[in-house]
């Protein structure tokens, strides 16, 4: 590898589209955030997953408390996901126009209000409103990384982005523990919303006191029409994907929602090409150095559901069915440990390879770990020890892949567009996760243990096969990405 293919020592992550000097060389980043800000940004990533995952084990308890069916109660997750997609579409672009810090403050304030509503609401509709507002936490998978890219020197920024994704793994672990404790009666389900109040209030105070913003702003104004079209299109597609297994894939509601969403998204792409100040610069979106990491993010995300949610469901299925471990919710909390250990492993891989400019090598390790994990899951799914090991490998691979794809994207777009660029990667993450969840749900419905409403082991194995194939495609994309990055001299 030539020296030109390595990272430039003083190059900001946002290069080559970053500000340049008169000679055309990238201007060095004026570092405005230090170690305290690193800790705050990591905390924001942790809080995201805590508030996303923590409610899942509590859905049955909440359903009994407010008198709703499991299908209806699931809207506490679906509503938050759909709202999060809308918040991403709008807030990520506003962050480029107004500054990342004020938009993070707005998002955390919405989460705080939603958590307060959840603490005191006794009706299902009130809880849905609470979860919709809490969907504003989803941009915390994008904006902290953009802040690090914009306001820190390259080495510190890359370290911070890797550490943020380690923090998200810790957040998943904390969410599993919180949900397990509340689900077993050790605490009320309202404890989840109380934790949401505390977590968002601490984050809000920390950001106001300890984060400094970049002075780089995108020109123009918010493309309101583009934001509306993107939000409506995403909601339509995500709604069809998430509700397809329940409503039926050929039902009028699913077809109308899915096809309508795709038509709106096609209209959005056409509108973006004509807009004076588009929501997303399509030229950057179609750049190979960006679209390949986007594709890898999407592919990696398809396996998230089968890697954690499906396995924890398997663990709680009674042994008598022949397709479960018969664990209690507290025993399921053991899955928090490999999730945390895998995320910590990921940090050391990112530090060892990304800090030396070996971005594609890191992606190769990350996606290969995903493939290995599903190779373990499939044939050994009936063995608890094997699934615990596979989850550790999978969480490491996922954290590496998501962190490094975001670093590559941030290196390939101007700093003034870092918010929306990394925000779109999170949108693709959400879409991939939803598609993976829908595939698993469909397989669970098709392959059951006799007439019991219990998924057979073959349903789990087929879902692992699909997820493993998606990870294998992501691994294969490393080769063309390496050629593109080497050709553009942005490091491999």
TrEMBL record:
Superkingdom of this protein's organism: Bacteria
Location(s) in or outside the cell: Cell membrane
Bilayer topology term: Multi-pass membrane protein
Keywords: Cell membrane, Membrane, Transmembrane, Transmembrane helix, Transport
Keyword Membrane listed: yes
Chain ranges passing through the membrane: 36-59, 71-91, 103-123, 129-147, 159-183, 189-210, 222-242, 254-271, 292-312, 332-353, 360-380, 386-410, 422-447, 459-482
Span of domain Major facilitator superfamily (MFS) profile: 33-486
InterPro entries xrefs: MFS (IPR011701), MFS_dom (IPR020846), MFS_trans_sf (IPR036259)
Cellular component aspect of the GO annotation: plasma membrane
Transport keyword on record: yes
Pfam families in the cross-refs: MFS_1
GO terms, molecular function: transmembrane transporter activity
Positions of the UniProt region annotated as Disordered: 1-29
PANTHER family assigned: BLR6921 PROTEIN, MAJOR FACILITATOR SUPERFAMILY MULTIDRUG TRANSPORTER MFSC
Name of the protein in question: Major facilitator superfamily (MFS) profile domain-containing protein
Organism: Planosporangium mesophilum
């Amino acid at each position: 590898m030539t020296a030109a293919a390595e990272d430039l020592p003083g190059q900001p992550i946002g290069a080559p589209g970053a500000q340049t000097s008169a000679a055309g060389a990238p201007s060095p980043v004026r570092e405005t955030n230090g170690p305290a800000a690193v800790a705050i940004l990591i905390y924001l990533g942790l809080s995201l997953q805590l508030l996303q995952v923590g409610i899942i084990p509590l859905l049955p308890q909440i359903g009994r408390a407010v008198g709703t069916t499991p299908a209806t109660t699931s809207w506490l997750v679906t509503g938050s996901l759909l709202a999060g997609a809308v918040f991403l579409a709008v807030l990520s672009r506003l962050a480029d126009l107004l500054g990342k810090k004020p938009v993070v403050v707005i998002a955390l304030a919405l989460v705080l209000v939603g958590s307060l509503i959840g603490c005191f609401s006794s009706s299902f509709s009130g809880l849905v409103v609470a979860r919709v507002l809490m969907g504003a936490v989803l941009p915390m998978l994008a904006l902290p990384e953009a802040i690090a890219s914009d306001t820190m020197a390259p080495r510190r920024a890359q370290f911070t982005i890797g550490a943020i994704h380690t923090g998200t793994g810790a957040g998943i672990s904390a969410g599993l523990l919180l949900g397990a404790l509340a689900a077993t009666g050790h605490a009320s389900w309202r404890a989840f919303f109380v934790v949401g109040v505390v977590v968002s209030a601490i984050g809000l105070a920390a950001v106001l006191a300890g984060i400094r913003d970049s002075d780089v702003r995108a020109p123009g104004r918010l493309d309101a029409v583009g934001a509306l079209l993107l939000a409506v299109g995403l909601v339509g597609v995500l709604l069809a994907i998430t509700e397809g297994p329940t409503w039926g894939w050929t039902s009028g509601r699913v077809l109308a929602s899915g096809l309508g969403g795709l038509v709106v998204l096609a209209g959005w792409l056409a509108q973006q090409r004509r807009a004076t100040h588009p929501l997303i610069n399509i030229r950057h979106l179609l750049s190979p150095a960006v679209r390949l990491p986007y594709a890898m993010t999407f592919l990696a995300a398809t396996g998230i559901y089968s890697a954690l949610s499906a396995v924890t469901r398997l663990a709680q299925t009674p042994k008598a069915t022949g397709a479960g471990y018969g664990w209690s919710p507290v025993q399921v909390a053991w899955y928090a440990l490999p999730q945390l250990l895998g995320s910590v492993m990921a940090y050391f891989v990112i530090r060892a390879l990304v800090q030396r400019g070996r971005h594609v090598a890191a992606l190769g390790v990350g996606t290969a770990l995903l493939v290995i994990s599903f190779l373990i899951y499939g044939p050994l799914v009936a063995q608890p020890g094997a699934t615990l090991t596979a989850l550790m490998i999978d969480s490491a691979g996922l954290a590496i892949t998501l962190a490094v794809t975001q670093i590559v994207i941030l290196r390939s777009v101007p700093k003034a567009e870092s918010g929306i660029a990394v925000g779109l990667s999170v949108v693709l993450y959400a879409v991939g996760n939803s598609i993976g969840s829908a595939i698993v749900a469909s397989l669970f419905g098709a392959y059951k243990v006799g007439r019991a409403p219990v998924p057979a082991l073959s349903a789990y194995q087929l879902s692992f096969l699909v997820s493993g194939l998606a990870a294998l495609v992501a691994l294969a994309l490393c080769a063309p990405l390496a050629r593109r990055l080497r050709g553009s001299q942005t490091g491999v």
